[in-house]
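Wed. Picked up where I left off yesterday with Phosphoribosyl-ATP pyrophosphatase. The coffee machine is broken again, so keeping this brief.
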Amino acid sequence: MSKDDLGGLDRLFATVAARKGGDPAQSYTAKLYTKGSAKIAQKVGEEAVELAIAAALEDRDEIISESADLLYHLSVLWANADVDPADIYAKLEAREGQSGLAEKAARKNDGEKKNGLR
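Structure written out below (tokens, as returned):
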């Protein structure tokens, strides 16, 4: 599949994934990879907070801008963790048509079983 065949988020992911191992002096994305998982996760958190603030202020332009920043940093996080967006799409598809409350309860029960709490 060529880059032209991909949707916007997939194109973004392909671009940031291609920058892994790139020259950090030439690419902000490559520089993020060299800083490691903790720094990438921190950037995702910062952008999520900035988006939440923009939403609370009902600032449409900032919501758009911060959403783009969050999706960019999230794509870097995925690529760094070797997670393909297709895996996330599959998870979302599996949840489609399921009540959010039921899905959340199922995750809680699974977590309790894994942690020996049941």
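Quick read: The chain has a mean pLDDT of 90.
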